[in-house]
Design brief:
single chain; Quinone Oxidoreductase, Chain A, domain 1; 2 domains; disordered N terminus; DUF2855
Length: about 375
């Protein structure tokens, strides 16, 4: 098969130092020629959230750096968004086909797609051992660019939120009277609270956040109450308590353990939004019951086997659509496409300076 003509001959990449995530560069390089079985995609837009910081922080532990390998010492942080085929040397996709999935923070990407009905799977050798959910690409179906932006922001975090809710409910919340959620202003945390709040029988849902964000978190759909990190020691909360740790901060986890002691029945580590304190995810504390890390891809595989490969996505998609229209549709969107602006947006996200009330959509495609 002869590849179709290409609209430009350079790709633009945001590269991040794997040992210092604030150090990043935007670089251009010439297109590599396609091999038979490959396709080149133009990455039109991708979302920037705390999830991306987690991918960088856990890049070595969870294998996130392996999806789009870079030169030694550097990495390409994966991001969720939409891309269009601009060159194809495979019968699996055609020029003009558009997909949602897991892309590099780049203007272009090369996959080795294999058709699975409507969706395709990247069958590149270096990705075969990585979690399957990240290798699946879904045909785009959004009616407009703004809906694509919202789907880029919501889909990855909402799937995680739905699975966390399902996981906790299946275990009866381990009889907790209160669920604490760290990094409560983050989109993953807020979506988790929204999913949990829909249940008729549930514990109280308390968002832990910075003092500056308590009013914002208290106004989000889902939380019953917001508590500042600085007030954990004096917070009057019903026990037993369980902790969903999205921040990954050892200091925050320690404060919760010191406040509740044996009244903390269960700690579930989910992600990391505090760059300097990611060790909190794996750091055990004395007392405070069981501690474990929740890895969404593994639980997704389990529930897919139990519920069905068609039924489970339909369940998640239905709830996601309700969340998009009922909660996310009014979010203000910040967009950046100039290389310096994209680089600055990444550094702000690493530093925790992005506005939690809205969403950030980036693109490195140059016209």
């Amino acid at each position: 098969m002869v590849p179709a003509s290409v609209e430009r001959v350079h790709t633009t990449d945001l590269l991040v130092r794997r040992d210092d995530h604030r150090r990043c560069e935007v670089r251009e390089s010439e297109f590599a020629p396609l091999r038979e079985g490959q396709a080149r995609f133009r990455v039109d837009r991708f979302a920037l959230t705390s999830n991306n910081v987690t991918y960088a922080l856990l890049g070595d532990v969870m294998g996130y750096w392996g999806f789009y390998p870079a030169e030694d010492g550097w990495g390409q942080v994966p991001a969720w968004g939409f891309a269009e085929v601009i060159e194809s040397a495979t019968g699996a996709v055609a020029v003009g086909d558009r997909f949602y999935g897991y892309w590099p923070m780049s203007s272009h990407a090369i996959l080795e797609p294999v058709a699975h009905g409507g969706p395709v799977v990247d069958d590149a050798e270096h990705r075969r051992a990585l979690p399957a959910m990240y290798n699946n690409y879904l045909p785009a179906s959004a009616p407009d660019a703004h809906t694509e932006e919202l789907q880029s922001l919501i889909r990855p975090l909402f799937a995680s939120a739905w699975l966390i809710d399902d996981f906790l409910a299946a275990q009866g919340f381990r009889d907790a009277a209160t669920v604490l959620i760290t990094s409560a202003s983050s989109k993953t945390a807020a979506a988790t609270a929204w999913c949990l709040a829909r249940r008729a029988e549930r514990p109280a849902l308390v968002g832990l956040t910075s003092a500056a964000n308590t009013e914002f978190v208290a106004g989000l759909a889902g939380y019953d109450r917001a508590v500042a990190y600085s007030d954990i020691a004096s917070a009057d909360l019903a026990g037993p308590v369980m902790l969903i740790d999205i921040a990954g901060s050892a200091d925050i986890r320690r404060a919760v353990h010191e406040r509740f002691g044996d009244g903390l029945s269960w700690t579930l580590g989910v992600g990391g939004t505090h760059m300097s304190e990611i060790s909190g995810l794996a750091a055990p504390q004395e007392g405070g019951g069981e501690s474990e890390i929740f890895f969404a891809p593994t639980y997704l595989e389990q529930r897919t086997a139990e519920i069905g490969s068609r039924e489970l996505p339909e369940m998640i998609s239905g709830a996601e659509s309700e969340y998009l229209e009922g909660v996310a549709r009014t979010w203000p969107i910040t967009r950046a496409s100039e290389p310096d602006a994209v680089r600055a947006a990444w550094i702000d996200q690493v530093d925790g300076k992005r506005d939690p009330a809205g969403g950030t959509i980036l693109s490195l495609v140059r016209s």
